[in-house]
From TrEMBL:
PROSITE patterns associated with the record: GATASE_TYPE_1, PDXT_SNO_1, PDXT_SNO_2
UniProt key word Chloroplast: no
Task performed by this protein: Catalyzes the hydrolysis of glutamine to glutamate and ammonia as part of the biosynthesis of pyridoxal 5'-phosphate. The resulting ammonia molecule is channeled to the active site of PdxS.
Catalytic activity: L-glutamine + H2O = L-glutamate + NH4(+); aldehydo-D-ribose 5-phosphate + D-glyceraldehyde 3-phosphate + L-glutamine = pyridoxal 5'-phosphate + L-glutamate + phosphate + 3 H2O + H(+)
A GO CC term attached to the entry: cytosol
SUPFAM superfamilies assigned to the protein according to its UniProt record, in alphabetical order: Class I glutamine amidotransferase-like
The protein's name: Pyridoxal 5'-phosphate synthase subunit PdxT
Record lineage: Bacteria, Bacillati, Actinomycetota, Thermoleophilia, Solirubrobacterales
CDD domains associated with the record: GATase1_PB
Protein's pathway: Cofactor biosynthesis; pyridoxal 5'-phosphate biosynthesis
Species name: Baekduia soli
Positions bound to L-glutamine: 47-49, 99, 127-128
Keyword annotations of the record: Glutamine amidotransferase, Hydrolase, Lyase, Pyridoxal phosphate
The EC number(s) this enzyme carries: 4.3.3.6, 3.5.1.2
Length: 189
């Protein structure tokens, strides 16, 4: 089975770990730099991006995490995970996220979104969600809400502003593991 990591410093990592294990992956919770060794893919969960940034700094994770992603490991980032990947945080994706973009009053809402490669819409749960305010030409927007991008892809990095792990949705994690398996197969070919 492919070995995937879930950043587990803070936030909603447990639901991602459980779902990925259900889907047959071997999963490691990532808290220190050594936990990144040998990973075939990485999930950055939702939570609080400010707290996550402090944890990443404290543990010296930015360097090794960036090296893993730049080496081509597939990534799935959700909500605060999307924020962590943007130009103003880890700088691994050519996007700028706007935090709490839908307004602090609208703490959460749900919407059905069509995403490429999926036959039926995704039931998306947004919790104080960001949107993508700016993006470079290499970024493909996969879905928007009211004209604001909430799902995007750049190479093997996919980000969504919502929480697929909270609505019984499994297909985004399946697609992620598909990309991970392809990469593992290509590497050993
Ligand atoms: N509002 C959070 C942040 O700015 C993200 C919310 C979430 O991950 N559910 O970090």
């Amino acid at each position: 089975a492919p070995l995937v990591g879930v950043l587990a410093l803070q936030g909603g990592f447990a639901a991602h770990v459980a779902l990925l294990r259900e889907l047959g992956a071997e999963v490691r919770e990532v808290r220190v730099a050594a936990d990144l060794d040998g990973l075939d893919g990485l999930v950055l969960p939702g939570g609080e991006s400010t707290t996550m940034t402090l944890g990443i700094d404290r543990e010296g994770l930015a360097g090794p995490l960036s090296a893993l992603v730049r080496a081509g490991a597939p990534v799935l980032g959700t909500c605060a995970g999307l924020i962590m990947l943007d130009r103003e945080h880890l700088g691994l994706m050519d996007i700028v996220a706007r935090r709490n973009a839908f307004g602090r009053q609208i703490r959460s809402f749900e919407a059905d979104l069509d995403l490429p490669g999926l036959d039926d819409p995704v039931h998306a749960v947004f919790i104080r969600a960001p949107w993508i305010e700016e993006h470079g030409p290499g970024v493909e927007i996969l879905a928007s809400v009211d004209g604001h991008p909430v799902a995007a892809r750049e190479g093997d990095i996919v980000v969504v502003a919502f929480h697929p792990e909270l609505s019984g949705e499994r297909r985004l994690h399946e697609q992620f593991l598909g990309r991970v398996r392809e990469r593992v197969a290509a590497r050993s070919a």
